[in-house]
Amino acid sequence: MQVEIKIDASYHEPKIMIFTASMTEQIHSIIQKLSEETPHMISGCRDGRIAVLDQNDLLKIYASNSKVFIVTSDGEYTTRLRLYEVEQRLNPSQFVRISNSEIINLKKVKNFDLRFTGTICVELTDGTTTYVSRRYVSKIKKLLEL
Q1: Beta-bridge mates of residue 78
Q2: Averaged pLDDT for residues 91-117
């Protein structure tokens, strides 16, 4: 396989072109590797120890008293990251902000209760409940296709 790199200041972002006689397993593998986004790590601190947290284990992330907390089924962790920084690291198809101070994992939602006027009650798989702030209700309804 030949690899050629051309440096040109007129390009604002990288452009990759593959020239081949046929689609091979090797080409398919290259395309797949180029398409994968590198996962961002999220770490939390508890009892003086730092743990690398799997996004699939996260229930919710919230800010309170100038600190950011990450809740998992295993317990609660703190992080030095700001809430918006954690949000940038999360998978946008799996996590959604429900207020200025809270983000939830959609895969950990047991149900959404729409009976409350002007807000939505969210029950998570661990039994805890939280509320969507009025500002984010239309976003959640759109997400739920309501």
Answers
A1: 45, 69
A2: 90
More confident residue, 132 or 14: 132
Specify the pLDDT at position 37.
Answer: 63
13: helix, strand or coil: coil
Q: Which two tokens stand for residue 39?
A: 């996962």
* Residue 36: per-residue pLDDT: 63
CA–chain centroid gap for 63, Å, is: 16
One-letter amino acid of 90: L
Residue 56 gets which letter from DSSP? G
Tokens of 140: 């959640």
Cα–Cα nearest to 129, from 143, 140, 113: 113
Determine the length of the chain: 146
pTM value is 0.70
| Contact status, residue 86 vs residue 61, Cβ threshold 8 Å | yes
Neighbours of 80 (CB within 10 A): 11
Quick one: 23 exposed, middle or buried, by C-beta within 10 A (0-12, 13-18, 19+)?
exposed
Q: 46 exposed, middle or buried (CB, 10 Å; 0-12, 13-18, 19+)?
A: middle
Beta-bridged to residue 103, according to DSSP, are 61, 97
Q: Is the pLDDT of residue 125 over 60?
A: yes
